[in-house]
């Protein structure tokens, strides 16, 4: 029964998540390729959707193997690649979400501020950041390629940590703390930037709300300009990301500290692993769906 529950949780998140991210990916690829207005933020959204797809697919394979325990389905290479891709894509998701937040905050900032000089004007100005994200996360996750083993090829006399269908071999303390410190530094830097940009956007929205209070027609005030709708969607993404990240962090710390394998906690962890990657595309899709401005003439 526990396996069936885990399978239901997995499919209910992975299925819609794959569909949603493919829709976002195709929508902004089409906009960038054929649209008259090529916005830098479209490339960021394409990259975010791609990162989410890698998370869902790589984590999904290991979850299926773990839930149904297909013996020898993943060999050493399969284990290394799935765990490596999942870890790397999570890092890419953190970095890309941060970049999206910062670019949106700079985009809506008043033109008189110094931050407008940082606003990217073309997609080419965004590419170096995305390339840097790949380099950083490929290097930070590289230690997994040496320490991940499949259960079928593991020497039973060697102490190893079970991570789903695969095992992680013990590493030297200096290596372990080096990569842990690098991941922590990455998360602190990018989440601090998220906090700054989210605060800036929230302040802008508050000022916008005070401004529309002066409008005589409340109906007209509800027709927010596109940049305001985009800012709301990015703020909602930030809230989703921080919720899933910190709850997953706390739960992982708890299970690691207590060495517990409660089935309910495992199901919650599956939900947290897929949560942001599965829900974020629908936040992006919803921002493009808004009531027609029937009062335009008014």
UniProtKB/TrEMBL annotation:
Please give the Gene Ontology molecular function terms for this protein: pheromone binding; pheromone receptor activity
Alphabetical GO biological process terms: response to pheromone; sensory perception of chemical stimulus
TM regions (residue ranges): 44-70, 91-109, 129-148, 232-254
Q: Which UniProt keywords apply?
A: Cell membrane, G-protein coupled receptor, Glycoprotein, Membrane, Pheromone response, Receptor, Transducer, Transmembrane, Transmembrane helix
Q: How does the entry describe its membrane topology?
A: Multi-pass membrane protein
Can you name a GO cellular component term? plasma membrane
Q: What is this protein called?
A: Vomeronasal type-1 receptor
Q: Which residues form the G-protein coupled receptors family 1 profile domain?
A: 20-284
**Keyword Membrane among UniProt keywords:** yes
Q: What subcellular locations does the record give?
A: Cell membrane
The record's gene field reads Vmn1r218
Extract the SUPFAM superfamilies matched here. Answer: Family A G protein-coupled receptor-like (SSF81321)
Domain of life, source organism: Eukaryota
Q: Name one Pfam family in it.
A: V1R
Q: What's the source species for this entry?
A: Mus musculus (Mouse)
Question: What family does this belong to?
Answer: Belongs to the G-protein coupled receptor 1 family.
Q: Which InterPro entries match?
A: GPCR_Rhodpsn_7TM, Vmron_rcpt_1
In UniProt terms, what function does this protein have?
Putative pheromone receptor.
Q: What is its main location?
A: membrane
